[in-house]
Design a protein that fits this description.
With about 140 residues, the protein is an all-alpha fold. It has one domain. About 80% of the residues lie in helices and about 5% in strands. The protein has 3 helices and 2 strands; from the N terminus they run ααββα. It has a two-stranded antiparallel ribbon. Helix 1 crosses helix 2 and helix 2 packs across helix 3. The chain is flat. About 0% of the residues are buried. The mean pLDDT is about 80.
Length: about 140
């Protein structure tokens, strides 16, 4: 139960920061930062807590394994666009600098290394899923 809760908490922090960026940059929410963080954390922690309480101690191990398999399947599809879009100045610039735009885009070396790591991790995920299926997990 602790590992599932910690897994949920780590995703809470990622989703909180992501939600903050999206709400500030694209939705233009005018909430105070602490309210925005509270909303995004509640959105992510409530399902984790509900699952933990409803399936009990015996089901938590299976739920944790299932969540890791789902992450292995989904993360490559989420990370590929992040690597792609963060490589362009068009998307990764800030206009909050008084002297003009500040460039936050990846240079070509970082983009290539990220792409190689993405391919490696994706292959390892596919291998892990195949092995889990063979073992009947």
């Amino acid at each position: 139960m602790v590992s599932l809760l910690l897994s949920g908490l780590s995703s809470v922090f990622v989703v909180t920061i992501t939600g903050q960026m999206v709400s500030e940059g694209h939705i233009n929410w005018s909430f105070k930062p602490w309210i925005r963080r509270l909303i995004t954390r509640l959105i992510t922690i409530i399902p984790t807590l509900a699952i933990s309480l409803s399936i009990g101690r015996d089901g938590l191990s299976k739920a944790l394994n299932a969540s890791q398999v789902i992450l292995s399947v989904l993360l490559p599809f989420i990370i590929a666009p992040v690597i792609y879009f963060t490589s362009f100045k068009k998307y990764m610039k800030s206009n909050k600098n008084l002297e003009g735009y500040k460039d936050f885009s990846n240079n070509w070396i970082v983009a290539i290394v990220a792409g190689i790591l993405w391919v490696f991790i994706s292959c390892m995920n596919v291998y892990g899923i195949v092995q889990a299926a063979k073992d009947g997990i």
